[in-house]
Amino acid sequence: MMVDPKSAGRWACAAALAAILIQGRAKADDPVAPRTLPPISERALAVHAAGMLFDGHNDYPWLIRTENDLGLTRLDFAGRINVGQTDIPRLRKGGLKAQFWSVYIPSEQPNPTKTVVEQIDFVNRLVEKYPADLALALTADDVAKAVQAGKIASLIGIEGGVAIDDSFAELRAFYKLGARYMTLTHNKTLAWADAANGEQLHGGLTPFGERVVAEMNRLGMLVDISHVSAETMADVLRVARAPVIASHSSAFALCPVPRNVPDAILTGLKANGGVVMVNFYSAFLVPDSNAKAREARDAIRKAHPDKAERAKALADWYKNEPGAIRGTVATVVDHIDHIAKVAGIDHVGIGSDFDGINSWPVGLDDVSDYPRITEELLRRGYSEPDVHKVLGGNALRALREAEVAAAKLQASTPPQVDDVKHVKKDEDD
Hints:
GO molecular function: dipeptidase activity
Number of helices: 16
Low-confidence stretches: 5-33, 422-427
Number of strands: 9
Strand content: 5-15%
Structural class: alpha/beta
Distance between the termini: 52 Å
Radius of gyration: 21 Å
EC number: 3.4.13.19
Protein name: Dipeptidase
Order of helices and strands: HHHEHHEHEHEHEHEHEHEHHHEHH
Keywords: Dipeptidase, Hydrolase, Protease, Signal
């Protein structure tokens, strides 16, 4: 999830994009149609299809919640829908084999547990409605079986530790409901963990936060360090006994924003066995992207006082921006390159954040465009086995190793127990 599109509103240009670009690609003869990109090579398509693309983060469930279609009656996911960046036809074109669907929860959401249960229920109902294309996956073996059957393995990841309401019992309940990772925070610091964009209150994890990590390891739920502070990341790596993931983050060295992963953490992830799954949000790829975009939009607003003309000019700017502000496919692979050099090729993956971002790289407009990443990796000399690691092999390996660690921990470690205050009954009761 980007900096805060869901709880604080979107950029001004995003309103124009919602009406023109996000609502579906325009026709080829439309004056605001996306630019024509070169075709993907046959070799790249073949290598891409032979691998297992496993995306760490897609916010489609929350997007549909905001579109008021939780009943799955208005939008047909099996057809080319005109909302957002994800549907089955585009997933198939993009060669996606496995997806962690984010069940996001805003930090300020009233009754967060109820909301997350509703989000989990949505993913389950989505899978049940489209059984020819989707299959629920709870384990690494489930992922492999779904892919072998020609279906898209669908996993659930909680975005925001506020969901557990400081309760180990709720954490275990979410695991039983199918959650296989949890992002420890969103943008707000919790009572037990500092967020990257929140107040720095604890210097990382509190002792309770360390217990949360320990219980997630014992369950086999991946600990996700996207959105947490660098100090929290370091604390997680210090106490974790299973691979850690960043489900949708990029490299701090290339784009120094708090949401990205510093090199020291990348080095720690190599020792831990974890994976950083690169985010496609422009502001996490291109330094000062937000400031540059704001400057360009302000100039357009001044030049076009008429609202309709301004909307068209904003959309024209967005589609014609060469990538200096939005980034390109090459920018995404720059981040993959850096993580691979610092942490190793076994510790980098893809975490697009599609349907949770309002600005994305040129050439990666929606889930149909993943093969362009494979094309760029091959152009840079990555071997086919290494391309397959980046696409999803590393993510699947981390999930499997977390399961192995959980089995060992369950044999030797009791569950974490909530501290319950008991009220002494009156003698007359």
